[in-house]
Amino acid sequence: MPCYLHGLSTALPPHTLPQTLVQDRAEAILGPKYPQFERLLKTFITSGIDKRHSVVPLEWFEEAHGWSQRNTAYLEGATELFCEAAQDALQDAGWIASEVDCVITVSSTGIATPTLEALAFTRLGFRDNITRVPIFGLGCAGGVSGLSVARSMAVARPGSKVLLVVVETCTLSFRSDRLQKADIIATVLFGDGAAAVCISSESPADRQVVRFNAGYQKIWPDTLSIMGWDVDDNALGVVFDRGIPAFVEEEFAGALEGALTHTGLNIDQIDRFVCHPGGAKVVDALEGVMHLPQGILDAEREVLREAGNMSAPTFMFVLDKVLKSGKSGQMMACALGPGFTASFMPFMVEKQAA
Fold this sequence. Notes:
Peroxisomal Thiolase, Chain A, domain 1; alpha+beta; two-stranded antiparallel sheet
């Protein structure tokens, strides 16, 4: 059984971080501590990123912060982003919060118990018998995997209204104490953001039809060290294996073939792949392994340029751009995340009537 898109929104926090300014501040903070920093300076330029957005101002990163301060900033910033994204998606769908039967929250950049949807409960006006499904640990695959979970919930309860909210505050993981290359790359790439979708098994009557079908995941054994978080006394510490682009080139084609077989499609039937842009090199690798024309993943590069890698919600920013561009046809959502996991979800966008 398919389910349908009723509303979609994206949200960015208030503090804009131009890449040139981030580079200058990172050089001032990390340069004296990290002997190889000068060699990595070029990554700020080649990243394909013009700016990011953060829940805290740039000055916040000049001081040391422990777990408590970082998580307090997460709780405040992520709750604000959650509410903004949820309210805008509900408005786009023509729903009100009290009509929502199930809310799914995807977030991996802080700890909230009670979880974010509970923190936003009174402010948004959810019913007291709403089903809450918080999901932690999906990382960059969280947008596609979360959408797959939301679809499953909508299909399991036909006619129910499901709200998915994806929120990440990646910038709060900035580290000036570990001095690992992965921390430099995170400083180059990471931004904060949120997105939300409203879906139901009932087709909307007054908007373009976007129909989601069952998702597919592939996890590779013995790959736990490729991507994720290290946890220590001070903060979360990003894990980025330098071989991710090469891994994509070697392994992604097989995972994609499995997803296509599972969904009964072949690659020639896909009119548009909609991908999570983890970084400029990853986007290049995806185009290569899927034999796409160089530069065809334009929406992915545009999101990366405007907001950086926001982890889980980034895919939904790309989805929003693709839909607003007027593209239609059979599409396939793709993302890679901790596990190491590839997440796929086919969806059909019907052509709008003239």
